[in-house]
Amino acid sequence: MNLVFHQCTPRPWHGFYRRIPGDTTAFHVPCDDYHRVLPYIYWERDEGRGRCNLIESEAAYALGGAVNATKRELVGIGGGSFLINEHGQVLVPASDGGGDVMLAGEIEGELEFENPFEHGTTFNLADDKELSVGDAWDRPYLGMWYNLSKYSRIYRMQSDRSGQTKEEPVRQDKRLITRLRSVRHFGAVRFIVNQDGIVLTKVPPGNVSTVVCEEMWQAVYVGRIDPNYWFVKER
Question: What's residue 99's pLDDT?
C-alpha cells in the first residue's frame, strides 16, 4: 500500500513514548523553513553510515512538513528526530530534551527509502516474507522500546514528569515470548517494535551475554506483534 499521511492539529501526547538513544534509532527531518523536506533515516553498515531519504511523494512531503511544524510549536525551530509507533502514530519530541512529545498525525502504508549503498534501489522496513526467527535484520534498527523481564513477561516503562510506571499489555503473548527466548535464552531483554509491527532485538556474538556494548550486537528478526495480545492504541 502506498504511503498515506493523515495530519492532525498537533496536540500533547501523554501516551507511551520511549526509544533507544542515538541517531540511527529514529526518523529525522532537516530544518528548512523555505523548502519542502523529506524525512530520512540513517543506516549503519560496515561501509559506514548512509542517509536514506523517504521516497518522494505528496504524503512524504506532508509528513516532513507536519513534523517540522510540530517541532516549531514545541521549541520554535524545526528539524530533529521523531518516531512512528506500531499504530502508525507520528510522535514528535521536543528537541530541547525537556520530555514534551506531541502527536502530529498518522500514517498508513509502507515507508520506502532510497538505498544509498546501492544506487537506484530502494528498501522498506515492512518486508519480512523471507525471514524466520533469529535471522539477521540487515536494515535500519528503529522502533519503540519494549522489554521482556527475566521472568519472561512483556512490559514497557512509561515516563512522565512524575517518574516512571511499569505497564503490561492486555494479555501476555506466549508465542512472542517463546520467539524472544529462542534468541535470548535468559535474563532481561530489550526489544523494539517498528511502525509495521515487526519485532526486533539484538543478540551478542555467540549469544554470550557478557559482551558489554549492546549497540555492537547483531540485530535479529523475531516476528510481529499480535494486536489481540498487545497494548491498546492510545489517543
Answer: 82
Task: Report the predicted TM-score, pTM, of the whole model to 2 decimal places.
Answer: 0.92
Cβ-in-10-Å burial (0-12, 13-18, 19+) of 5 comes to: buried
Write out pLDDT tens, residues 146-203: 999 999 999 999 877 667 889 999 999 999 999 999 999 999 999 999 999 999 999 9
Which carries the bigger pLDDT value, residue 117 or residue 78?
Answer: 117
Domain hosting residue 162, numbered range: 144-229
Using CA atoms, how far apart are residues 110 and 140, in angstroms rounded to an integer?
Answer: 15
> How far is it, in rounded angstroms, from Cα 84 to Cα 197?
11
Give Cα separations from 75 to 7, 92, 99, 105, 188 (angstroms): 20, 11, 12, 18, 36
For the chain, the distance separating the N- and C-terminal CA atoms, rounded to the nearest angstrom, is 24
Residues 149 and 92 in one domain: no
14 and 118 inside one domain: yes
Examine residue 135 and state whether it is found in any structural domain, yes or no.
no
- 137: Cα separation from own chain's centroid: 14
What's the rounded Cα separation, in Å, for the pair 192 and 60?
A: 24
